[in-house]
Design a protein that fits this description.
two-stranded parallel ribbon, mainly alpha, single chain
């Protein structure tokens, strides 16, 4: 008794583009490898914010170079007298700033 070979049955249809053309499936079946090797390829992630008022998220900035110009002289003079590495606390919120930008260090800035 002869048995039919297992290779004679059709397992899957032969299609020209089984996974879709070009970048198809980027949000679905190609997403895993894209996220591993190309992070942030699919731009928008997270919750949407409808009616995004700009004035609600406004935060004025000050450069780190200008921090010493904000404080009055009666605060700067005692800071230069002491030889330790202490630095006076500058409250930028009282000057209507909410963000400090810059890469400089605060040590050695004051020269009197």
């Amino acid at each position: 008794m002869a048995m039919a070979a297992a290779t004679t049955t059709c397992i899957k249809k032969n299609r020209k583009y089984p996974e879709g053309r070009d970048d198809a499936g980027g949000m679905h079946h190609h997403r895993v490898l894209h996220d591993d090797h190309h992070p942030k390829y699919f731009g928008k992630v997270g919750m949407r914010y409808f009616h995004h008022p700009r004035n609600k998220f406004y935060s004025p900035t000050v450069s780190a170079d200008r921090l010493w110009s904000l404080d009055p002289d009666d605060v700067k003079k005692p800071a230069t007298v002491y030889d330790d590495d202490s630095t006076p606390l500058i409250g930028v919120a009282s000057f209507n700033y909410s963000k400090i930008l810059g890469r400089n260090a605060l040590t050695g800035w004051f020269h009197y």
